[in-house]
Here is the input.
Amino acid sequence: GALRVTGFTGSGVFNAGTSPDGALLAYLSDGLLTIVDTRTGVLRRAYIHSGDSPLSWSPDGRFLALHQAGSVLRINVADFTRATMPPPPPSSGALPQLAVSGPDGWLDPTHVGVTFLPGSSETHTAYQSLDLTSGALTPIATVAANQGATFAVQPGGAHTLFWTAKYRGNPYVAQAALINNATGAQTALPTIANALSNYGFL
Here is the structure.
């Protein structure tokens, strides 16, 4: 039957998502991470003070990744132990913050895709692979983005769809590119005017 989670307090539930096998449900509410066993309804909770960061399940369901205070936080689902991966020094004018996508951010069981949020005067940002065991960053591609960006990794990690809304006076123009994660090669996709975000994996 359907699982109903009740009895929580807070301003709301953010970025809920199930593990790859559907056995667990995770969500955030006022910095409180809750993991629910969808078979038994048992809840486990821990404060992680991350606001409403997107939660990203690893492909094997062992870890969650999210961004926290300019870094990437890796959480062990079994016991809530965590490791923080600090970002490298930002480029000139860039905001010192890393963004992890939602449930489509993992390149493989130990690597996530990350990008700097670009500064207001910057026209490009680096898309990189972050090793969540060592903290090492490996460049993948440099992409056009000056109003923030969003990306989703193809299941299996071969490609990433990267899209951004660029303000050109009026209107906004959504731009997207398909990135080969092995070579960094990019294939530009058609732009859409009068849009803030009109791209996503179907």
Q: What stands out?
A: Residues 100 and 114 are 5 Å apart (CA to CA). Residues 194-202 have pLDDT under 50 and may be disordered. The longest strand covers residues 159-167.
